[in-house]
Amino acid sequence: MQKLTERQDMVLQYINSSITDRGYPPTLREIGNFMGIRSTNGVNDHLRALERKGYLTREDMKSRALRPTGINGSGSGNNGHNGHSAHGGHGSDDNLIEIPILGRVAAGQLSEAIESPQDTVHIDRMMVGGARDVFGLRIKGESMIDAGIHDGDYVFVKKQIEARRGEIIIALVGEEATCKYYYPESDRVRLVPANQTMTDIVISKDDWRSTHILGVVVGIYRRLN
Known about the structure:
9-stranded mixed β-sheet; alpha+beta; Umud Fragment, subunit A; 2 domains; two-stranded antiparallel ribbon
């Protein structure tokens, strides 16, 4: 295996330490904070280098995206067995939840969609704040890019019909589900995009019902390549 640079080795050791100490890999943001890298693209450059040199694998739509090829590996070139599965942790299934990944959710169809998901994914309960009643939706469009939610991302949503002011929710507008910030006001509800080029969706209180809220976003999954 190719020798790693000092900073590549630091990233690998940080991933290894996170898995050993917490039972699951760090997020891109956590790696960036540790390394002093502000851009996720910068973090991805290091991850791609580790993958190219054979020290890291990244798995699509699994409970964890990062998996060192040798949990004790480093720039020294040691390559042991895979220390942890894609489901992370120390092998405790009690901490895993199965999340249904839904397709299109239309009015009155959430229960049916959850019962017949397009796919499912197992993730550590800690990644969604311990929530149990969670479903996943794939984001279409760029209305929430300034909140770090991009086209093609999967959001994990805690199913509930109420939300606090300023939370990111999945709401039904007409016949379609949309992801927006939630701002209730005295006579209306504003659904606010995180994109300065887009305008708010304004719904009068007379037309708003609690069932417009499908749930609150509690996590995001993004493909790394």
